[in-house]
Amino acid sequence: MIKLSAEDITQQSGPLELPPQDSCHVYSRDFSVFYGDNEAVKKVTLGVPRAQVTAIIGPSGCGKSTYLRAVNRMNDLIPRCRAEGELIFDGENVYGPRVDVVALRRRIGMVFQKPNPFPKSVFDNVAYGPRIHGVSGRNELAGIVERSLTRAALWDEVRDRLSANALGLSGGQQQRLCIARALAVDPEMLLMDEPTSALDPKATSRIEDLIGELREQYTIVIVTHNMQQAARVSDFTAFLYEGALIEFGPTQQIFTKPRQKRTEDYITGRFG
Amino acid sequence: MPKHLHRQMDKLKREVLSLGAVVEDGVRKAVQALEGRDAALAEDVIKRDVDVDQAEVNLEEECLKILALYQPVAIDLRFIVAVLKLNSDLERIGDLAVNIAERALYISEHGAAQFPLDFGKMAREAQQMLKMSLDALVNMDARLAREVCAADDAVDAINRQMYIQVQESIRKTPEHMEGLIHLLSASRHLERIADHATNIAEDVVYMVEGEIIRHRAEDYRDGTAGGEGAGDPGQG
Fold it and tell me: Which CATH superfamily is domain B2-221 in?
Protein backbone atom coordinates (compact mmCIF):
# COMPACT_ATOMS: atom_id res chain seq x y z
CA MET A 1 0.00 0.00 0.00
CA ILE A 2 1.22 3.44 -0.84
CA LYS A 3 1.76 6.14 1.72
CA LEU A 4 1.38 9.74 0.74
CA SER A 5 1.72 12.89 2.75
CA ALA A 6 -1.11 13.48 5.18
CA GLU A 7 -3.13 15.78 2.95
CA ASP A 8 -3.08 13.23 0.16
CA ILE A 9 -4.12 10.29 2.24
CA THR A 10 -7.43 12.01 2.86
CA GLN A 11 -8.01 12.36 -0.86
CA GLN A 12 -7.00 8.85 -1.73
CA SER A 13 -9.98 6.80 -2.90
CA GLY A 14 -8.22 3.53 -2.23
CA PRO A 15 -4.79 2.05 -1.93
CA LEU A 16 -2.67 2.36 -5.04
CA GLU A 17 -1.26 -0.91 -6.12
CA LEU A 18 2.50 -0.86 -6.29
CA PRO A 19 4.31 -3.76 -7.84
CA PRO A 20 5.63 -6.23 -5.25
CA GLN A 21 8.96 -5.06 -3.85
CA ASP A 22 10.87 -8.09 -5.10
CA SER A 23 9.90 -7.24 -8.70
CA CYS A 24 11.24 -3.71 -8.28
CA HIS A 25 14.73 -2.55 -9.09
CA VAL A 26 14.30 0.54 -6.96
CA TYR A 27 11.88 0.87 -4.09
CA SER A 28 11.53 4.00 -2.01
CA ARG A 29 9.66 4.02 1.26
CA ASP A 30 8.63 7.29 2.92
CA PHE A 31 11.44 8.85 0.97
CA SER A 32 11.93 12.61 1.22
CA VAL A 33 14.46 14.99 -0.25
CA PHE A 34 15.07 18.41 1.29
CA TYR A 35 16.74 21.49 -0.15
CA GLY A 36 17.51 23.23 3.12
CA ASP A 37 14.13 23.40 4.84
CA ASN A 38 12.16 22.88 1.66
CA GLU A 39 10.85 19.33 1.30
CA ALA A 40 10.99 18.87 -2.49
CA VAL A 41 10.06 15.16 -2.39
CA LYS A 42 7.59 14.27 0.34
CA LYS A 43 7.55 10.79 1.82
CA VAL A 44 7.27 9.08 -1.53
CA THR A 45 6.68 5.34 -1.50
CA LEU A 46 7.21 4.07 -5.01
CA GLY A 47 8.40 0.91 -6.72
CA VAL A 48 10.24 0.99 -10.04
CA PRO A 49 9.67 -2.37 -11.75
CA ARG A 50 12.73 -4.18 -13.04
CA ALA A 51 13.36 -4.19 -16.83
CA GLN A 52 10.46 -1.85 -17.51
CA VAL A 53 10.17 1.79 -18.42
CA THR A 54 8.71 3.99 -15.71
CA ALA A 55 7.81 7.58 -16.54
CA ILE A 56 7.62 10.27 -13.90
CA ILE A 57 5.32 13.12 -14.85
CA GLY A 58 4.14 16.22 -13.07
CA PRO A 59 4.20 20.01 -13.34
CA SER A 60 7.42 21.99 -12.97
CA GLY A 61 8.71 21.95 -9.41
CA CYS A 62 6.82 18.79 -8.45
CA GLY A 63 10.02 17.01 -7.46
CA LYS A 64 10.27 14.59 -10.34
CA SER A 65 13.84 15.45 -11.35
CA THR A 66 14.85 15.62 -7.69
CA TYR A 67 13.48 12.12 -7.16
CA LEU A 68 15.27 10.86 -10.28
CA ARG A 69 18.59 12.37 -9.25
CA ALA A 70 18.20 10.92 -5.77
CA VAL A 71 18.29 7.40 -7.18
CA ASN A 72 21.99 7.56 -8.07
CA ARG A 73 22.73 10.27 -5.52
CA MET A 74 23.38 13.03 -8.00
CA ASN A 75 21.79 15.35 -5.46
CA ASP A 76 24.82 14.86 -3.22
CA LEU A 77 26.49 17.48 -5.37
CA ILE A 78 23.92 20.12 -4.36
CA PRO A 79 24.75 21.97 -1.14
CA ARG A 80 22.19 21.69 1.69
CA CYS A 81 20.42 18.84 -0.06
CA ARG A 82 19.63 15.84 2.14
CA ALA A 83 17.44 12.75 1.98
CA GLU A 84 15.29 10.97 4.55
CA GLY A 85 13.59 7.61 4.48
CA GLU A 86 14.63 4.62 2.46
CA LEU A 87 15.57 4.25 -1.17
CA ILE A 88 16.41 0.65 -1.85
CA PHE A 89 18.34 -0.28 -4.99
CA ASP A 90 18.80 -3.98 -5.53
CA GLY A 91 18.21 -4.72 -1.86
CA GLU A 92 20.47 -2.03 -0.44
CA ASN A 93 19.66 1.43 0.87
CA VAL A 94 21.26 3.89 -1.52
CA TYR A 95 21.71 6.30 1.39
CA GLY A 96 23.25 3.69 3.67
CA PRO A 97 26.63 4.45 5.29
CA ARG A 98 28.68 1.89 3.36
CA VAL A 99 27.53 2.77 -0.12
CA ASP A 100 30.25 3.44 -2.69
CA VAL A 101 28.72 6.29 -4.69
CA VAL A 102 31.04 5.84 -7.67
CA ALA A 103 30.13 2.16 -7.93
CA LEU A 104 26.48 3.06 -7.54
CA ARG A 105 26.67 5.51 -10.45
CA ARG A 106 28.31 2.87 -12.58
CA ARG A 107 25.34 0.63 -11.99
CA ILE A 108 22.82 3.42 -12.49
CA GLY A 109 23.60 5.51 -15.56
CA MET A 110 22.15 8.89 -16.30
CA VAL A 111 21.20 10.86 -19.40
CA PHE A 112 20.47 14.55 -19.10
CA GLN A 113 18.21 17.05 -20.76
CA LYS A 114 20.89 18.55 -22.97
CA PRO A 115 23.37 16.26 -24.67
CA ASN A 116 26.67 16.78 -22.88
CA PRO A 117 29.40 14.93 -24.73
CA PHE A 118 32.98 15.63 -23.67
CA PRO A 119 35.00 17.71 -26.14
CA LYS A 120 36.80 14.55 -27.20
CA SER A 121 36.50 12.04 -30.00
CA VAL A 122 33.44 9.84 -30.34
CA PHE A 123 35.58 6.87 -29.31
CA ASP A 124 37.01 8.57 -26.24
CA ASN A 125 33.57 9.68 -25.09
CA VAL A 126 32.33 6.12 -24.98
CA ALA A 127 35.62 4.70 -23.68
CA TYR A 128 35.80 7.29 -20.89
CA GLY A 129 33.84 5.33 -18.29
CA PRO A 130 35.45 1.93 -18.92
CA ARG A 131 38.91 3.55 -18.74
CA ILE A 132 38.08 5.11 -15.38
CA HIS A 133 36.99 1.68 -14.20
CA GLY A 134 40.31 0.20 -15.22
CA VAL A 135 39.82 -1.15 -18.73
CA SER A 136 42.91 -0.32 -20.74
CA GLY A 137 43.32 -2.92 -23.52
CA ARG A 138 42.82 -1.29 -26.91
CA ASN A 139 40.90 -4.27 -28.30
CA GLU A 140 38.74 -4.61 -25.25
CA LEU A 141 37.92 -0.89 -25.34
CA ALA A 142 37.16 -1.06 -29.06
CA GLY A 143 34.77 -3.92 -28.40
CA ILE A 144 33.00 -2.01 -25.63
CA VAL A 145 32.75 1.12 -27.80
CA GLU A 146 31.26 -0.76 -30.74
CA ARG A 147 28.83 -2.67 -28.55
CA SER A 148 27.70 0.45 -26.71
CA LEU A 149 27.28 2.49 -29.88
CA THR A 150 25.34 -0.36 -31.46
CA ARG A 151 23.02 -0.61 -28.46
CA ALA A 152 22.51 3.13 -28.64
CA ALA A 153 21.59 2.81 -32.34
CA LEU A 154 24.47 5.10 -33.35
CA TRP A 155 27.15 2.71 -34.61
CA ASP A 156 26.14 2.78 -38.27
CA GLU A 157 26.27 6.58 -38.32
CA VAL A 158 29.65 7.02 -36.64
CA ARG A 159 31.64 3.88 -37.39
CA ASP A 160 33.72 5.77 -39.95
CA ARG A 161 34.39 8.77 -37.77
CA LEU A 162 35.17 7.41 -34.35
CA SER A 163 38.10 9.76 -34.03
CA ALA A 164 36.09 12.85 -35.00
CA ASN A 165 35.17 15.32 -32.28
CA ALA A 166 31.85 14.39 -30.69
CA LEU A 167 30.78 18.02 -30.68
CA GLY A 168 30.51 17.81 -34.45
CA LEU A 169 27.61 15.36 -34.23
CA SER A 170 24.01 16.52 -34.49
CA GLY A 171 22.01 17.08 -31.29
CA GLY A 172 20.18 13.78 -31.64
CA GLN A 173 23.42 11.93 -32.34
CA GLN A 174 25.08 13.60 -29.37
CA GLN A 175 22.25 12.44 -27.12
CA ARG A 176 22.54 8.88 -28.40
CA LEU A 177 26.29 9.17 -27.83
CA CYS A 178 25.57 10.11 -24.22
CA ILE A 179 23.33 7.05 -23.95
CA ALA A 180 26.15 4.93 -25.44
CA ARG A 181 28.55 6.48 -22.91
CA ALA A 182 26.18 5.54 -20.11
CA LEU A 183 25.82 1.99 -21.46
CA ALA A 184 29.59 1.52 -21.83
CA VAL A 185 30.08 0.83 -18.13
CA ASP A 186 27.40 -1.85 -18.29
CA PRO A 187 24.83 -0.33 -15.95
CA GLU A 188 21.68 -2.09 -14.76
CA MET A 189 19.52 0.96 -14.86
CA LEU A 190 19.23 4.18 -16.83
CA LEU A 191 17.85 7.44 -15.48
CA MET A 192 16.74 9.87 -18.17
CA ASP A 193 15.96 13.45 -17.25
CA GLU A 194 13.90 14.90 -20.12
CA PRO A 195 16.26 13.30 -22.64
CA THR A 196 14.55 14.66 -25.73
CA SER A 197 13.48 18.14 -24.69
CA ALA A 198 16.33 19.71 -26.66
CA LEU A 199 15.83 17.57 -29.76
CA ASP A 200 13.77 17.92 -32.94
CA PRO A 201 10.87 15.50 -33.61
CA LYS A 202 12.93 13.11 -35.75
CA ALA A 203 15.75 12.84 -33.21
CA THR A 204 13.13 12.53 -30.46
CA SER A 205 11.53 9.66 -32.29
CA ARG A 206 14.89 7.86 -32.59
CA ILE A 207 15.51 8.20 -28.87
CA GLU A 208 12.01 6.92 -28.12
CA ASP A 209 12.60 3.91 -30.39
CA LEU A 210 15.87 3.35 -28.61
CA ILE A 211 14.15 3.41 -25.21
CA GLY A 212 11.81 0.74 -26.56
CA GLU A 213 14.78 -1.43 -27.49
CA LEU A 214 16.75 -0.85 -24.29
CA ARG A 215 13.82 -1.79 -22.06
CA GLU A 216 14.60 -5.43 -22.71
CA GLN A 217 17.88 -5.20 -20.84
CA TYR A 218 17.70 -2.21 -18.56
CA THR A 219 15.37 -0.71 -16.03
CA ILE A 220 14.63 2.79 -17.27
CA VAL A 221 13.18 5.74 -15.43
CA ILE A 222 12.35 8.74 -17.55
CA VAL A 223 11.27 12.17 -16.41
CA THR A 224 9.36 13.98 -19.11
CA HIS A 225 7.21 17.04 -19.57
CA ASN A 226 5.85 15.57 -22.76
CA MET A 227 2.73 13.67 -21.83
CA GLN A 228 2.46 11.94 -25.19
CA GLN A 229 6.04 10.77 -24.80
CA ALA A 230 5.31 9.29 -21.38
CA ALA A 231 2.29 7.55 -22.90
CA ARG A 232 4.31 6.24 -25.85
CA VAL A 233 7.47 4.97 -24.19
CA SER A 234 6.60 3.86 -20.68
CA ASP A 235 5.07 0.78 -19.11
CA PHE A 236 4.30 2.50 -15.81
CA THR A 237 3.66 6.11 -14.95
CA ALA A 238 4.03 7.94 -11.67
CA PHE A 239 2.38 11.32 -11.23
CA LEU A 240 4.01 13.64 -8.71
CA TYR A 241 2.44 16.84 -7.52
CA GLU A 242 4.01 19.25 -5.03
CA GLY A 243 6.52 16.61 -4.06
CA ALA A 244 3.96 13.91 -3.27
CA LEU A 245 3.15 10.81 -5.29
CA ILE A 246 -0.46 11.20 -6.36
CA GLU A 247 -0.85 8.15 -8.53
CA PHE A 248 1.17 5.25 -9.85
CA GLY A 249 -0.07 2.64 -12.28
CA PRO A 250 0.23 1.02 -15.69
CA THR A 251 0.64 3.79 -18.27
CA GLN A 252 -2.35 2.63 -20.25
CA GLN A 253 -4.57 2.97 -17.22
CA ILE A 254 -3.18 6.37 -16.20
CA PHE A 255 -3.85 7.80 -19.66
CA THR A 256 -7.28 6.29 -20.23
CA LYS A 257 -8.77 5.94 -16.79
CA PRO A 258 -6.79 7.63 -14.04
CA ARG A 259 -8.10 7.02 -10.55
CA GLN A 260 -7.26 10.38 -9.10
CA LYS A 261 -8.99 13.54 -10.18
CA ARG A 262 -5.74 15.52 -9.91
CA THR A 263 -4.04 13.11 -12.29
CA GLU A 264 -6.89 13.50 -14.74
CA ASP A 265 -6.84 17.28 -14.42
CA TYR A 266 -3.11 17.35 -15.04
CA ILE A 267 -2.91 15.01 -18.01
CA THR A 268 -5.92 16.63 -19.69
CA GLY A 269 -4.33 20.05 -19.25
CA ARG A 270 -6.90 21.40 -16.81
CA PHE A 271 -4.10 22.54 -14.53
CA GLY A 272 -0.35 22.52 -14.30
CA MET B 1 -3.32 24.04 -26.23
CA PRO B 2 -5.76 22.55 -23.72
CA LYS B 3 -7.84 25.71 -23.99
CA HIS B 4 -8.24 25.11 -27.73
CA LEU B 5 -8.97 21.46 -27.08
CA HIS B 6 -11.63 22.21 -24.52
CA ARG B 7 -13.23 24.80 -26.77
CA GLN B 8 -13.39 22.20 -29.55
CA MET B 9 -14.82 19.66 -27.13
CA ASP B 10 -17.51 22.08 -25.98
CA LYS B 11 -18.45 22.68 -29.60
CA LEU B 12 -18.53 18.93 -30.22
CA LYS B 13 -20.76 18.44 -27.21
CA ARG B 14 -23.22 21.08 -28.47
CA GLU B 15 -23.29 19.43 -31.89
CA VAL B 16 -23.87 15.93 -30.58
CA LEU B 17 -26.68 17.17 -28.35
CA SER B 18 -28.26 19.00 -31.24
CA LEU B 19 -28.07 15.83 -33.39
CA GLY B 20 -29.60 13.90 -30.50
CA ALA B 21 -32.49 16.36 -30.32
CA VAL B 22 -33.15 16.14 -34.07
CA VAL B 23 -33.11 12.33 -33.97
CA GLU B 24 -35.37 12.21 -30.93
CA ASP B 25 -37.80 14.53 -32.67
CA GLY B 26 -37.71 12.34 -35.79
CA VAL B 27 -38.64 9.22 -33.82
CA ARG B 28 -41.45 11.06 -32.02
CA LYS B 29 -42.91 12.34 -35.29
CA ALA B 30 -42.55 8.97 -37.04
CA VAL B 31 -44.49 7.23 -34.27
CA GLN B 32 -47.06 10.02 -34.29
CA ALA B 33 -47.42 9.68 -38.09
CA LEU B 34 -47.92 5.94 -37.75
CA GLU B 35 -50.47 6.16 -34.98
CA GLY B 36 -52.34 9.06 -36.63
CA ARG B 37 -52.01 7.79 -40.22
CA ASP B 38 -50.46 11.16 -40.98
CA ALA B 39 -48.77 11.00 -44.39
CA ALA B 40 -47.57 14.63 -44.32
CA LEU B 41 -45.81 14.15 -41.01
CA ALA B 42 -44.25 10.91 -42.28
CA GLU B 43 -42.98 12.73 -45.40
CA ASP B 44 -41.46 15.39 -43.16
CA VAL B 45 -39.48 12.78 -41.19
CA ILE B 46 -38.21 11.18 -44.41
CA LYS B 47 -37.17 14.54 -45.80
CA ARG B 48 -35.20 15.54 -42.72
CA ASP B 49 -33.03 12.43 -42.69
CA VAL B 50 -30.54 14.07 -45.00
CA ASP B 51 -29.80 16.60 -42.24
CA VAL B 52 -29.13 13.78 -39.79
CA ASP B 53 -26.76 12.12 -42.26
CA GLN B 54 -24.88 15.36 -42.82
CA ALA B 55 -24.63 16.04 -39.08
CA GLU B 56 -23.23 12.54 -38.54
CA VAL B 57 -20.49 13.10 -41.10
CA ASN B 58 -19.67 16.52 -39.62
CA LEU B 59 -19.44 15.08 -36.11
CA GLU B 60 -17.15 12.30 -37.22
CA GLU B 61 -14.87 14.77 -38.96
CA GLU B 62 -14.77 16.91 -35.83
CA CYS B 63 -13.80 13.89 -33.71
CA LEU B 64 -11.05 12.85 -36.13
CA LYS B 65 -9.74 16.40 -36.20
CA ILE B 66 -9.56 16.57 -32.41
CA LEU B 67 -7.82 13.18 -32.21
CA ALA B 68 -5.26 14.21 -34.81
CA LEU B 69 -4.57 17.69 -33.50
CA TYR B 70 -4.74 17.29 -29.73
CA GLN B 71 -4.20 13.60 -28.88
CA PRO B 72 -6.62 13.81 -25.95
CA VAL B 73 -6.23 11.49 -22.96
CA ALA B 74 -8.33 10.25 -20.03
CA ILE B 75 -11.84 11.77 -19.87
CA ASP B 76 -11.24 13.80 -23.04
CA LEU B 77 -10.23 10.66 -24.94
CA ARG B 78 -13.14 8.68 -23.55
CA PHE B 79 -15.50 11.48 -24.53
CA ILE B 80 -14.27 11.57 -28.13
CA VAL B 81 -14.39 7.78 -28.43
CA ALA B 82 -17.91 7.71 -26.98
CA VAL B 83 -19.07 10.44 -29.37
CA LEU B 84 -17.57 8.61 -32.36
CA LYS B 85 -19.54 5.52 -31.44
CA LEU B 86 -22.83 7.02 -30.36
CA ASN B 87 -22.76 9.23 -33.45
CA SER B 88 -23.31 6.09 -35.56
CA ASP B 89 -26.07 4.95 -33.24
CA LEU B 90 -27.84 8.30 -33.57
CA GLU B 91 -27.60 8.14 -37.34
CA ARG B 92 -29.00 4.61 -37.33
CA ILE B 93 -31.85 5.72 -35.10
CA GLY B 94 -32.53 8.47 -37.65
CA ASP B 95 -32.71 5.80 -40.37
CA LEU B 96 -35.07 3.69 -38.27
CA ALA B 97 -37.33 6.72 -37.78
CA VAL B 98 -37.42 7.00 -41.58
CA ASN B 99 -38.30 3.30 -41.82
CA ILE B 100 -41.16 3.79 -39.38
CA ALA B 101 -42.30 6.84 -41.36
CA GLU B 102 -42.33 4.71 -44.53
CA ARG B 103 -44.53 2.14 -42.77
CA ALA B 104 -46.76 5.03 -41.71
CA LEU B 105 -46.98 6.19 -45.33
CA TYR B 106 -48.06 2.74 -46.50
CA ILE B 107 -50.65 2.39 -43.80
CA SER B 108 -52.05 5.86 -44.41
CA GLU B 109 -52.34 5.13 -48.14
CA HIS B 110 -53.70 1.59 -47.98
CA GLY B 111 -56.14 1.87 -45.16
CA ALA B 112 -55.51 0.97 -41.62
CA ALA B 113 -55.20 -2.33 -39.93
CA GLN B 114 -56.26 -2.27 -36.32
CA PHE B 115 -53.25 -2.14 -34.06
CA PRO B 116 -53.13 -5.61 -32.54
CA LEU B 117 -52.03 -4.46 -29.13
CA ASP B 118 -50.94 -1.33 -27.38
CA PHE B 119 -48.44 -0.24 -29.99
CA GLY B 120 -48.25 3.11 -28.22
CA LYS B 121 -46.79 1.50 -25.10
CA MET B 122 -43.88 0.07 -27.01
CA ALA B 123 -43.33 3.35 -28.84
CA ARG B 124 -43.33 5.23 -25.54
CA GLU B 125 -40.89 2.78 -23.93
CA ALA B 126 -38.44 3.02 -26.82
CA GLN B 127 -38.69 6.80 -26.96
CA GLN B 128 -38.23 7.01 -23.21
CA MET B 129 -35.07 4.93 -23.46
CA LEU B 130 -33.74 7.20 -26.17
CA LYS B 131 -34.56 10.29 -24.12
CA MET B 132 -32.94 8.82 -21.00
CA SER B 133 -29.79 7.84 -22.88
CA LEU B 134 -29.45 11.38 -24.21
CA ASP B 135 -30.13 12.84 -20.75
CA ALA B 136 -27.45 10.53 -19.37
CA LEU B 137 -25.09 11.86 -22.02
CA VAL B 138 -25.88 15.50 -21.26
CA ASN B 139 -25.52 15.04 -17.50
CA MET B 140 -22.73 12.42 -17.67
CA ASP B 141 -24.98 10.29 -15.53
CA ALA B 142 -23.78 6.67 -15.48
CA ARG B 143 -26.55 5.57 -13.13
CA LEU B 144 -29.26 6.75 -15.53
CA ALA B 145 -27.38 5.14 -18.41
CA ARG B 146 -27.40 1.81 -16.57
CA GLU B 147 -31.17 2.15 -16.14
CA VAL B 148 -31.49 2.44 -19.93
CA CYS B 149 -29.48 -0.75 -20.38
CA ALA B 150 -31.72 -2.54 -17.90
CA ALA B 151 -34.89 -1.31 -19.66
CA ASP B 152 -33.99 -2.91 -22.98
CA ASP B 153 -35.36 -6.30 -21.98
CA ALA B 154 -38.87 -4.91 -21.53
CA VAL B 155 -38.94 -3.55 -25.09
CA ASP B 156 -37.58 -6.84 -26.44
CA ALA B 157 -40.40 -8.64 -24.63
CA ILE B 158 -43.08 -6.35 -26.09
CA ASN B 159 -41.63 -6.91 -29.55
CA ARG B 160 -41.86 -10.69 -29.11
CA GLN B 161 -45.41 -10.27 -27.87
CA MET B 162 -46.19 -8.12 -30.92
CA TYR B 163 -45.00 -10.89 -33.22
CA ILE B 164 -47.41 -13.38 -31.67
CA GLN B 165 -50.29 -10.91 -31.74
CA VAL B 166 -49.70 -10.00 -35.38
CA GLN B 167 -49.55 -13.67 -36.30
CA GLU B 168 -52.95 -14.18 -34.67
CA SER B 169 -54.43 -11.10 -36.29
CA ILE B 170 -53.27 -12.26 -39.73
CA ARG B 171 -54.98 -15.57 -39.10
CA LYS B 172 -58.20 -13.81 -38.12
CA THR B 173 -58.17 -11.03 -40.71
CA PRO B 174 -56.02 -12.16 -43.63
CA GLU B 175 -57.33 -9.25 -45.72
CA HIS B 176 -55.22 -6.92 -43.50
CA MET B 177 -52.11 -8.99 -43.84
CA GLU B 178 -49.95 -6.40 -45.59
CA GLY B 179 -50.84 -3.63 -43.18
CA LEU B 180 -50.13 -5.95 -40.25
CA ILE B 181 -46.75 -6.89 -41.65
CA HIS B 182 -45.92 -3.21 -41.93
CA LEU B 183 -46.94 -2.79 -38.30
CA LEU B 184 -44.73 -5.69 -37.30
CA SER B 185 -41.85 -4.02 -39.13
CA ALA B 186 -42.50 -0.80 -37.26
CA SER B 187 -42.42 -2.75 -34.02
CA ARG B 188 -39.11 -4.27 -35.02
CA HIS B 189 -37.76 -0.79 -35.85
CA LEU B 190 -38.77 0.45 -32.41
CA GLU B 191 -37.04 -2.50 -30.84
CA ARG B 192 -33.90 -1.64 -32.79
CA ILE B 193 -34.16 1.98 -31.66
CA ALA B 194 -34.19 0.71 -28.06
CA ASP B 195 -31.08 -1.36 -28.86
CA HIS B 196 -29.27 1.72 -30.19
CA ALA B 197 -30.37 3.71 -27.13
CA THR B 198 -28.79 0.94 -25.06
CA ASN B 199 -25.58 1.25 -27.08
CA ILE B 200 -25.55 4.99 -26.41
CA ALA B 201 -26.10 4.36 -22.71
CA GLU B 202 -23.21 1.87 -22.67
CA ASP B 203 -20.99 4.48 -24.31
CA VAL B 204 -22.03 6.98 -21.64
CA VAL B 205 -21.04 4.54 -18.88
CA TYR B 206 -17.67 4.09 -20.60
CA MET B 207 -17.25 7.83 -20.91
CA VAL B 208 -18.02 8.51 -17.25
CA GLU B 209 -16.45 5.50 -15.58
CA GLY B 210 -13.95 4.23 -18.12
CA GLU B 211 -15.53 0.81 -17.93
CA ILE B 212 -16.70 -1.12 -20.98
CA ILE B 213 -19.99 -2.78 -20.02
CA ARG B 214 -20.99 -4.20 -23.39
CA HIS B 215 -21.93 -7.89 -23.52
CA ARG B 216 -22.42 -7.93 -19.76
CA ALA B 217 -26.19 -7.55 -19.58
CA GLU B 218 -26.43 -9.72 -16.49
CA ASP B 219 -24.31 -7.20 -14.56
CA TYR B 220 -26.79 -4.38 -14.75
CA ARG B 221 -30.08 -6.23 -15.22
CA ASP B 222 -30.65 -6.47 -11.47
CA GLY B 223 -29.75 -2.80 -11.07
CA THR B 224 -27.11 -3.57 -8.46
CA ALA B 225 -24.06 -3.16 -10.64
CA GLY B 226 -21.78 -0.70 -8.97
CA GLY B 227 -19.15 1.25 -10.79
CA GLU B 228 -19.28 4.61 -9.06
CA GLY B 229 -15.86 5.34 -10.52
CA ALA B 230 -13.47 7.42 -8.49
CA GLY B 231 -12.51 9.39 -11.52
CA ASP B 232 -15.79 11.25 -11.76
CA PRO B 233 -14.97 13.63 -14.53
CA GLY B 234 -17.77 16.05 -13.78
CA GLN B 235 -15.85 18.97 -15.14
CA GLY B 236 -16.38 17.78 -18.71
Answer: Phosphate transport system protein phou homolog 2; domain 2 (1.20.58.220)
